[in-house]
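Lab notebook, bench 4. We co-purified these components, and the gel suggests they stay together. Before we commit to crystallization screens, I want a quick structural picture of the whole thing.
Request: model the full complex, all chains together.
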Amino acid sequence: MPTIVFANPKGGAGKSTSALILATQLAIKNAGVTIIDADPNRFIHDWAKNGKPDNITVVAATSEETIVDEIQAAARNTAFVIVDLEGTASLMVALAVTQAHLVIIPTQGSHADAKQAGRAVKLIKTQENVTGRAIPHAILYTRTNPAIRTRNFAAIQEQFRQYNIPEFKTHLHEREAYKALQSFGGTVEDLDPSQVGGLEKAIANAREYAIEAIALLRDVITKRQKVAVNA
Amino acid sequence: MRDRANIFDELDVSGFTPEPATHKLAPEPQIRAAAEAQNFQSREPKPKPVKKADRRYRTGRNIPLATKISANASQLLYGIHAEHKDPQGHPLWTIGQIIEFGLQAFQRELDKKKVQE
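Here is the predicted assembly.
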């Protein structure tokens, strides 16, 4: 049921990679997942061509006219719906966001990424007013270095915190394994340690991130149920 | 690399099942207006505007011709132009048309000659 939308109007922020990692982690636990690949670069579509778990369905080629219907149709068929959006400020982002149980805003620790992540947050706030409901969201720091926290990154993190924008405690680190997913298809767990280095750490990082995403979703759903009971 | 299942694994996806979305649907124009105000615009190709029918009369005579002719030929050319008029008094043919008619007649003569030879 939950729809998780990955949005950041900047390209290369880590949307497709973080969407794919979450989808594959859920699929490993036998959950049915539909990935709606709304990015014309078709990163996820290409990944699927190289092999994917059977319980992941990839739906490609969406348009502004159909994206809401596609999300709703997917929600009826699989337990999780993941929407990977194009890295651009488009109407499709706004439409997808209105359907989200959780919007994950991936951003690298760079000013350019963070600025666009800020735009995504503003868009969410506006759409909350339009739809009359809270749209839970959280910043996910991507391609971070597990050993070094740069001053630039710290300054960006501080700015988001000043505005009380929720963030994942887990950062998705820069890992060779995540890049290798595109070449080999499948899941991080399926990769061959003789071909890809640092697999164990990549798997641990992916799981930690998925666990946190699920915890956020459970929290969102519990809050909604409480609101429904009180209404 | 598949690793052994961890009995303390915290990634628990139980309880999530397919079900219809229950989100209230805001009217699309409102979503669009709010998004566009923040420069999140439609990036999809818009249908090409239908071309208006071209109702201009085109003669196809659009090549300029500047040459010198004799005074007699000039008199003949402008004489034909001035002499032939419609009931409203407008010339029946333009100078260009008269030259074209003349050329056509000349071509016919040449063709006849060829047949005779």
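Residues 71-116 of chain B form one domain. Worth comparing against the SEC data before the next meeting. The longest helix of chain B spans residues 95-116.
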